[in-house]
Amino acid sequence: MSLNPQQVTNTINELQENFERSGLTKQQVATDLDISLTKLERLFTLTQSSLNDPLILRNYLIEKVEANGQQPVEFTALVGDWHQYWFLNSRVIDKRKITAGDN
Predict the structure, then answer these.
(1) Is 32 a member of any domain?
(2) Is position 26 within any domain?
(3) CA gap 72, 66 in Å, rounded
(4) How far apart, in whole angstroms, are the C-alpha atoms of residue 53 and residue 99?
(5) pTM of the model as a whole
(6) Cα distance between residue 60 and residue 72, in whole Å
């Protein structure tokens, strides 16, 4: 999945807004996803090498925003059913298995 510069900017903003609506701290998110804060920052800035990982964060944040009684900000680029994209590993995304390490 390749995003143009505007889509990258929009997605970064959408992730951040949903994070804020979740009411969680970054440490809570990192702990829940079993990743380091360094890795979490890479996900929030879309500098993570795995294409699956940002979708996992997206899905996690949507769930947490809804659990917090808020309406999630809609994503404009990370949309659709990830099961339909041949370049994504839907099983990994469904299991929320973020790649190991900080890259």
Answers:
(1) yes
(2) yes
(3) 7
(4) 7
(5) 0.93
(6) 11
